Amino acid sequence: MRIEEITAKQEMLNAGHNACPGCGAALAVRYLTRALGPDLAIVLTASCWSIIAGMPPLTALKCPILHCPFPSAGSVGSGVRRGLNAKGKHDTTVVVLAGDGGTFDIGLQALSGAAQRNEDYMFVCYDNEAYMNTGMQTSSATPFGARTNTAPYPLFKEGQKKDIMQIMAAHGIPYAATATVAYPEDMERKLKKAQEIRGFRFMHILSPCPPGWGTESSDTIHLSRLAVRTGFFPLYEVFNGTSWKMTCRPEGKRAPLRDYLAGQRRFKQMEEARIEALQEEVDHDWEKLLEKIEASRL
Q1: Do residues 40 and 193 lie in contact, with contact meaning Cβ atoms separated by under 8 Å?
Q2: Structural domain tally of the chain?
Q3: From CA 201, how far away is CA 177, in angstroms rounded?
Q4: What is the pLDDT of residues 61-113, one digit of tens each?
Q5: Which of 177, 181, 170 shows the shortest CA–CA distance to 197?
Q6: pLDDT tens-digit profile of 276-290?
Q7: Fewer Cβ neighbours under 10 Å: the N or C end of the chain?
Q8: Domain containing 240: what range?
Q9: Dist CA 177 CA 180 (whole Å)
Q10: Is residue 239 a contact partner of residue 245, using CB atoms and an 8 Å limit?
């Protein structure tokens, strides 16, 4: 995407917000609001973005924002959508914006209920793979082997990262997709596609966190791109829970996972055996994804 094409678009994110330098979540929401346009209402659950957005009248976003408690985002989104419908504002796009804590963990029950009812709004998870806003504690989105402030000694996460896309696909929702800030055109296309679909839509956006991941602020795009090229975070879409389509396949052979891990201090003291175990997990999940995509073509 050329720089003149980016700057020509309407900015919905004000300068001077509270995000950390290099925040992947801030960049993701900047792309999101550009893609979806000004007729937008956002529900914010407790998360980094509830701080980034700020409180009225000094909010960072140029659209209505409703803050809500951690567990209730899915329900509040349903209420906002139905309230707007009652006022005849059927074309206003409703987005629930939550981190991995408000999606994978504390908010999962309300999220599942909204998906089951096929509520007509978009749920967007910006995934920085831990509870970054409250001290970098482990969440079920934290990958195996990552260092956090609450994992058992020696402070490495045990167990796999929860596969939230599999969970959402199991609900049979009309549309779900993954995205990352390193591929803005892919993200924008998916957001616009989701905006045109009626019913429940889910977006899972990988959002590097420099303080939590132990990276330089200038590495956010590079790491996002490596996550895709290694297969750690593939970019794909799921339609109605059954049809899977990859939207950005790495050219040639996938890069080794250690290339992605090496730039993050949260993996710095990771033993070789753990690196190999995580590589096996990524390889296994990659093959399973390819099987789903191939089955969708039949």
Answers
A1: no
A2: 1
A3: 9
A4: 999 999 999 999 999 999 999 999 999 999 999 999 999 999 999 999 999 99
A5: 177
A6: 999 999 999 999 999
A7: C
A8: 3-297
A9: 10
A10: yes
